[in-house]
Write a structure and sequence with these properties.
seven-stranded mixed β-sheet, 8 helices, single chain, five-stranded parallel β-sheet, alpha/beta
Length: about 325
């Protein structure tokens, strides 16, 4: 995809520069000149090294760990573009942090996903481009357009190319992921099963029951993100106890915090397939983890947005 347009400018924060470079390369562009650092007291410093007056700016920044630093980088960059008279500022957020705090689960809870949406809008963004929000209704937290890309087709293609055979079952790790898993099952022409669980507190889950037939089948657990991997590993063990022959897993966002890598190493999961919306550092790279690139999809979406073309056609 070699395309050039002088009014289209791609910038990157520090969260995922490799992905940003690959997106720019797919567009036939180079990342524009910018520098994001810190002052001696820890405040974030942003320098935009070229004119953006009248330009369509796309700033690529996942709000992954360190979440607060990456979020502030994004907000300050947006403000800089606004004050430099950019015609349009598009916040490309492959992974949208704070998305799990999307509702009041108990009294006096904040709704931080909405707060972050307000901050991005107030900073001056005209549009958000993101992928596989933890709760799709977060799109409604914004009063600006949101293009919500899907990582499912990228992950499904991996398993289609792998040719696991006919004895495959797609498994949703909880009731909240059923829609995502059903879409995935349709892509693989496979049946669907659901793990019924309850979560007594954050990052702690207890497996209750498996709804559906997994006996004698290769199970693929499908989720939007993997954080500490506790739920994932419990689910895999429950599937094997229920007669599954093998367990694979996939998720768009590999957060992989805390004990996740050690849990995955010791787990019965044969492979975990993730995308590069969040960079995978060297110390977390293990043979079980396979990474698929979202750069071609984001590049195509950016070009379509810039040219005023339909983005939804990417998923027809």
């Amino acid at each position: 995809m070699v395309r050039y347009n002088s009014s289209l400018k791609i910038f990157s924060g520090n969260s995922n520069p490799k992905l940003a470079s690959e997106i720019a390369e797919h567009l036939g562009l180079k990342l524009c000149d910018s520098e994001v650092g810190t002052f001696s007291d820890g405040e974030i410093s942003v320098r935009i090294g070229e004119s953006v007056r009248g330009a369509s700016v796309f700033v690529i920044q996942s709000t992954c760990a360190p979440v607060n630093n990456n979020l502030m980088e994004l907000l300050i960059m947006i403000d800089a573009f606004k004050r430099a008279s950019a015609a349009e500022i598009n916040a490309v957020i492959p992974y949208y942090g704070y998305a799990r705090q999307d509702r009041k689960a108990k009294a006096r809870d904040p709704i931080t996903a909405k707060l972050v949406a307000d901050l991005i809008t107030a900073a001056g963004a005209h549009r958000v481009v993101t992928m596989d929000l933890h709760a799709p209704q977060i799109q409604g937290y914004f009063n600006i357009p949101v293009d919500h890309l899907l990582g499912g087709p990228i992950l499904a293609k991996y398993f289609l190319d792998k040719e696991l055979g006919n004895d495959v079952v797609v498994v949703s790790p909880d009731h909240g992921s059923v829609t995502r898993a059903r879409y995935f099952a349709e892509k693989l022409n496979a049946p669907l099963a659901i793990i019924d669980k309850r979560r007594p507190k954050a990052n702690v889950a207890e497996i209750m029951n498996i709804i559906g037939d997994v006996r004698g089948k290769k199970a693929i657990l499908v989720d939007d993100l993997i954080d500490t991997a506790g739920t994932l590993v419990q689910g895999a063990e429950a599937l094997l106890d229920s007669g599954a022959t093998e367990v694979y897993a996939c998720a768009t966002h590999g957060v992989l915090s805390g004990p996740a890598i050690e849990r995955l190493k010791e787990s019965p999961i044969k492979e975990l397939v993730i995308t590069d919306t969040i960079p995978l550092p060297e110390e977390k790279k293990i043979d079980k983890i396979k990474v698929r690139s979202v750069a071609p999809l984001f590049a195509e979406a950016i070009w379509r947005i810039h040219e005023g073309m339909s983005v939804s056609k990417l998923f027809v």
